[in-house]
Write a structure and sequence with these properties.
The protein is mainly alpha-helical. The chain contains 14 helices and no strands. Helix 9 packs across helix 13 and helix 12 packs across helix 14. The longest helix has about 35 residues. It starts with 7 loop residues before the first helix and ends with a helix.
Length: about 325
């Protein structure tokens, strides 16, 4: 008997409650736990200077960044899996994440990051946009998903090579350590300034990706059928790739390279929907927000000598998804 998916509105409401709960927990718990009453007093009356500082200077911008970055990564993964018709697709498949990371590494390596707090995010976003230009140059007018994946692998490999070169030529171990720390991904010590830098890119990327829902549904019938239904495949590809590059570039710019969220979340969401690409987009965005916020909460409350990096935690979370997919595919071999 086929299990029926819950109504979409119910799924979105449940995920929204999960994301809200994760956000509240992220505000309450950390190196110093805040009670609900103390948090409320600090938020409304502001009479407790310690709680107010923890809330507004540390945890609130970090929580909001976790929500919007996670939403962007989850949405981008769902959109790319629908467009490329590949369940293992995520932003790094097209080289976007790696190129954005290279832009951030260049800012650190050449010392531009010390000039202004916006320099590193701007170079990271520029790296993501440059990867889009290279992707179009390599893929040309080809509409095949395989061509795009191959072009993306080439762009991503080039970006990884550039990052490795920067590490190889680091003038001292401290510079190399700074680059490695940023590459591992973290939301530690982020402020509202980082949020205002990332938010326009993420908002623009989200709008462009959500716009493609119906076109992605039509594409499941094949490219010829989609064109017969009035879908402009080139315009859709431009919106989808540009939305991914701008949105993920803005996210990576403030968080570092955080992988696997775009891979994990659509796999968790898909069985709860009718499996059409449009039905997965918005739930994946909300699910990504909840997942990354919970992961960020985890790195703060797990007792370790040094705070864990977000990229490390999400990498461990991605392993079960790969194993489940592997076991499922083995039945078909």
């Amino acid at each position: 008997m086929t299990r029926r998916a819950p109504p979409r509105a119910l799924l979105i409401a449940a995920l929204a409650l999960l994301a809200l709960g994760a956000g509240i927990a992220s505000l309450l718990f950390g190196a110093v736990d805040l009670s609900v009453a103390r948090l409320w007093t600090a938020a409304v009356h502001g009479g407790d200077p310690v709680a107010s500082t923890i809330l507004f200077e540390l945890r609130l911008p970090r929580t909001l960044l976790a929500l919007v970055v996670g939403a962007m990564l989850g949405l981008a993964g769902a959109a790319l899996q629908g467009y490329l018709r590949n369940p293992l697709a995520e932003p790094s498949v097209l080289g976007t994440s790696n190129a954005a990371a290279l832009g951030g590494v260049a800012a650190i390596y050449f010392g531009f990051a010390e000039l202004h707090v916006a320099t590193l995010p701007l170079l990271a976003t520029g790296g993501a946009l440059l990867s889009l230009v290279l992707l179009f140059a390599l893929a040309g007018r080809a509409e095949s998903p395989l061509t795009l994946i191959l072009a993306g692998i080439a762009v991503g490999t080039l970006a990884v090579a550039g990052t490795s070169l920067a590490l190889n030529l680091s003038p001292n171990p401290f510079a190399a350590m700074e680059i490695m720390t940023w590459l591992l991904g973290s939301l530690e010590n982020r402020s509202f300034q980082h949020l205002w830098i990332a938010l326009p890119c993420i908002a623009a990327g989200t709008a462009m990706l959500l716009w493609n829902g119906r076109a992605l549904d039509a594409l499941t019938l094949g490219e010829d059928a989609a064109q017969a239904m009035g879908v402009d495949l080139r315009a859709m590809r431009l919106r989808l790739l540009a939305g991914t590059a701008i949105g993920v570039g803005g996210a990576v710019a403030v968080s570092g390279a955080i992988g696997f969220v775009g891979l994990i979340v659509p796999h968790l969401i898909r069985p709860l929907t009718d499996r059409s690409p449009s039905a997965i987009l918005l739930p994946s965005a909300i699910g990504g927000a909840a997942l990354l916020t919970l992961a960020d909460l985890g790195v703060r409350i797990i007792p370790t000598t040094n705070e864990l990096k977000l990229g490390v935690v999400t990498a461990f979370l991605g392993v079960p998804v790969f194993l489940v997919h592997l076991m499922r595919e083995r039945r078909l071999w």
